[in-house]
Fold this protein.
Amino acid sequence: MQGCRTLWRADEMMISGVVKEIEFVNKYAFGVDIGGTTIKLGLFDGEGNILDKWEIPTSKSVDGTQILPDIAVAIEVKLQEKEIEKSEVIGVGVGVPGPVDSKGTIYGADNLGWGVFNVAEILSSLISLPVKVGNDANVAAFGEMWKGGGEGYNNLVMVTLGTGVGGGIIVGGNIVSGYAGGGGEVGHIHIEDGEEEPCGCGNYGCLEQYASATGIVRLAKRRLMKDDAPSRLRSRKLSAKSVFDAVKAGDEVAMEIADEFGRYLGKGLAVIASVVNPEVFVIGGGVSKAGEILFDYIRPYFLKYAYRVCKDTKFVLATLANDAGICGAAGLILNNDK
Amino acid sequence: MQGCRTLWRADEMMISGVVKEIEFVNKYAFGVDIGGTTIKLGLFDGEGNILDKWEIPTSKSVDGTQILPDIAVAIEVKLQEKEIEKSEVIGVGVGVPGPVDSKGTIYGADNLGWGVFNVAEILSSLISLPVKVGNDANVAAFGEMWKGGGEGYNNLVMVTLGTGVGGGIIVGGNIVSGYAGGGGEVGHIHIEDGEEEPCGCGNYGCLEQYASATGIVRLAKRRLMKDDAPSRLRSRKLSAKSVFDAVKAGDEVAMEIADEFGRYLGKGLAVIASVVNPEVFVIGGGVSKAGEILFDYIRPYFLKYAYRVCKDTKFVLATLANDAGICGAAGLILNNDK
């Protein structure tokens, strides 16, 4: 893989400005986002435009050993369908749901049944193309930096508020993977000392327990049980969406829940800012569909807890939604060393 | 400055292995560490060995405007004394006590009376040499990575436990300065909700309020006032040193204070690990003179609060002491792009 990449860089160095640009447009890359139930794939041109995207199911048989062969076949079939030569493909970027180091080794992915192995090397040998691999949340952050809400910034932190809380740290345009792939695992920042229920990770009081979609439902249940204050939430199925819909309708109990959510997340983001001081926080995931009203609840607490030079950090919403993963994965190939 | 650096890199590319090495040894660099009362300076050879070091007082007259001219004169005098031509000097690295961005702009340094300006550009124009500038704690971290306790690691976090708590984050061998120079400001991570005394920064509950030398004295005073439990600390002047000396002598109250210190710092380091996941924490500053016994108190809490993939993070002591600043500053010049 390293050899192929070096070769490509050498090509790039040998050709001049205009020729290089044409050369680049005529090339292709694939972006792959491996999830627990489906694998999303995208075919991109050299500028990062999506030409085609599709999904295949995630095979969990035999400890997930069929996943990489399935991806290789899906790519081969697409190349035939589009009549693209393999020599026109710069490489394949992949996002995986687990900690990955900068060399492409994954340190376990519970959702897939995977242990520790080098994903980049194995997929590259199956498909005979250069492969780069990143953690899915980091890769989504990279996508948002390249083509989404964080476009134009190269120091950013993306926080994905979904079933859990994921994160991706970008410093100087590069993903911070961390030594053992734990870079950007901001959902597991310890944020609350008194918590009695365990987080999915086994610790107590992780940010994910309060700021994820399921965390917001927990906060809502706790608040509703506290007293009998009237709220439209009492007659609805609790979800992050129903909470923020109630906030928008002026429901005071829902506002208290949103305030609690904002306190935890604002405090967590302030802590992150004291470590890497990004220019912007990009907020994505299902919870972010509530829109900019989220910032009204996060920002006051961020300002309360942030160190002075970090207080100007901007907040924006992610814009790529489900395409962030494939887009960022393609970006690992196309936006590399540019 | 950029031009000079590029020129040097071109030189480097044009000469072959052995010649390059000799060329490099015959070059020099200066490392400068600007403190509130003294400025430390060092002359280094191309391998990063200290050839000479000395100090000059920090002039605070006229809003610190004399500081950079004083440094320029000190370097010119040293060049004459050592009969070194300016063409033999690769550059001057500088650590400054305030937030600095990657271009060398400082965003205020209260201790020096400085506002916002580009330190690198001004010193470079005074001395006619390339200048690189970093925050003093970041630069010390860089020094420890290059020649100190963190040698051999290129993903590390240094935490300096002195009067305050400073920090430096190194990712992939590079300092994380942050967008507004706030990268590595780990002393101002919010770590305690109930704090009623303000931190020097104006916030409440910063890590610095518990894990610095002064923070340890605060914890000790609080513990001693709680009851009348016997302790040798009651007859001694309280300091971080007297607390850890008492710990080593088996004083139970001192052990409780050390445990409290370890809980705050271990929790803070676990949070940092979930953001950048370093391979090693390098602990420096006056408090670190207590030695590896510190780790006995920090590690259990680190393990309690850290996300699973971060639990293997190593702990080492800084080894460069007061030379970390000048050494790291010289490293900004000599260890750049190697």
